[in-house]
Amino acid sequence: MRSPRNDDLSPDNPEARDRHVAERTCILSRRTASRDELIRLALGPDGSVAPDVRARAPGRGAWIGVTRGEIDLANAKGKLKPALQRAFKTNEVSVPADLGERTEAALRQSALDRLGMEARAGNLINGSDKVEVAARSGKVALLIHAADAGDDGNRKLDQAWRVGGGAAQGVIFPASRTILSMALGRDNVVHVALTDPAAASRVQHALKRWRAFTGPDRGPEGGEPALEDGSAEAN
Description:
Blueprint (H helix, E strand, L loop, with lengths): L13 H6 L3 E3 L6 E3 L4 E5 L5 E4 L8 E4 L3 H9 L3 H9 L10 H22 L3 E3 L1 H9 L5 E4 L5 H13 L7 E2 L4 H8 L6 E4 L2 H18 L21
C-alpha cells in the first residue's frame, strides 16, 4: 500500500499558504482580496461595530479594503451603515462616527506590538553604531528610522545597508523615537534593524496594512523598496 503524502499544511509553509488563501470581498468597493489585504470589522453583542485588525473576534465579520478617507466619507454620507447591515444580515448595527480613526489607531498599535514582539524574541537591534555594523555586514533584513530621526543619521545608515546588500533606503516609521522607545521598552530608540528575514517580513506586512489604510498622503514616507516584499503572515 502506498503511504499517504505527509504534506506540511502549517501557515509557515509557502506552498500551503498558496493553496489555502482565504479571500473576502470589501463591502464598499466590492474588491476581492485575501484576508491579509483587507481589514475585518466585528459586530459586538450590543450591535456596535469595531475594528478587528487581527481578525480574531468571534461572530460575524465584515471586510473593508479602502482607505480611511474613503471609509470616513462613506460613513458621513450614510453609505457605510447599509453596507454593514447587509454584511452582518441585521438592521441592529451601530456605526461610530470615528470608526475610521479607531481603525487607524488599531493598525498603528498592531505595528507597534509587532515590533515589540520581535524585540522580545531577539530579532531586533537598535542603536546607531550596532545597526551600522550589522548593516555593513549584510545582517540587516529591514532598516527603520523614527519619524524624528535626523537626515544625516538616516543617510549614514542607509548607505551602510546598501553596502551590505540591502535596499536603497530604510523605512521612515510614522512615529517618533518616544513612541518607538515605549513600544520596545528601550531608551531613545531612533534607528531599528530587523536581523531575521521572517521577522522583517512580519513587520513589513504590519506597516503595509497600516499605510494602505491611511493612504499615500498620510502613511509612512520613504522606504518604498523595503516594504515591497512583506509577507502576508502577521504572526
